[in-house]
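Field reference: sequence -> structure
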Amino acid sequence: MKHTWKMVMAVAILGVGLSLQPALSLAEKGEDHSQEVIKHAKEGVAHTKEAIKHIEESVKGTGDAHAKEALRHANEAIAHAEQSIAHAEMAAKKTMCCMEGKQEHK
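Structure field:
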């Protein structure tokens, strides 16, 4: 059971964290990369969701309370990541609108 729990935690932490790492490094390069950052973040979330589904299937029959709790936390992490992506999309749209407005005034 401990092995399953550790595997769930590894997916939760590494899946979200490492999948977002390329997005975070692109974010440092400026506004031009906003859409690329968002795309990478969405891909990372999708891959992590798929991994969580596989782990949920593995854990179903075990009744391991720790694994189920870890899966709950992993799903919460995904929800937070999706909220962050939504905020990034809104910020990118706002930035694009501001940039278009500045170009019109020139």
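Note: The chain has a mean pLDDT of 75.
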